[in-house]
Amino acid sequence: MADISEDTIRTVVAETLGEQQRIHHGDIDAVVDRAITTVLASFGIEEDDRRELRADFQHLRRWRKSVEQAQGFTFKAVITVIVAGFLGAVWLGIKVMLGK
């Protein structure tokens, strides 16, 4: 039998294990893709609708941010009205006190 060096054996084993690992990762990727496709299909979203789905989510995000911004402006406006009313009442009270 021909002399096979230890390095050659290690190389062959390493290549074989690497190939098995690549195949294993490929299997995992295929299973994950299939699971995602199945879940989306259960919601009535076909694989061809992914671009539209992405656009829908982007629209919802913009809408949510604009609503949050409007809520912030509304809160600030309400605080401003309350403070202005309080200051107006204080000013009116001071004018009435000074007028007597």
**Contiguous uncertain segments of 5+ residues:** none
- Give the topology string: H per helix, E per strand: HH
Which secondary-structure class do the elements indicate? mainly alpha
Beta content: under 5%
What level of helicity do the residues show? over 70%
**How much is the average pLDDT?**
85
Radius of gyration: 35 Å
Categorize the overall geometry: elongated
- Specify the number of helices: 2
First-last Cα distance: 123 Å
Major β-sheet, in short?
A: none
Number of strands: 0
Task: Describe the structure concisely.
The chain has helices at 6-42, 50-99.
3D structure, described in words:
Helices cover 87% and strands 0% of the residues. The protein is mostly helical and 100 residues long. The longest helix is centred in the C-terminal third of the chain and has 50 residues. It is elongated, with a radius of gyration of 35 Å. The model has no long low-confidence stretch (mean pLDDT 85).
List the helices and strands and how they pair.
Blueprint: H1 6-42, H2 50-99
Which properties best describe this structure?
87% helix, elongated, 100 residues, mainly alpha, 2 helices
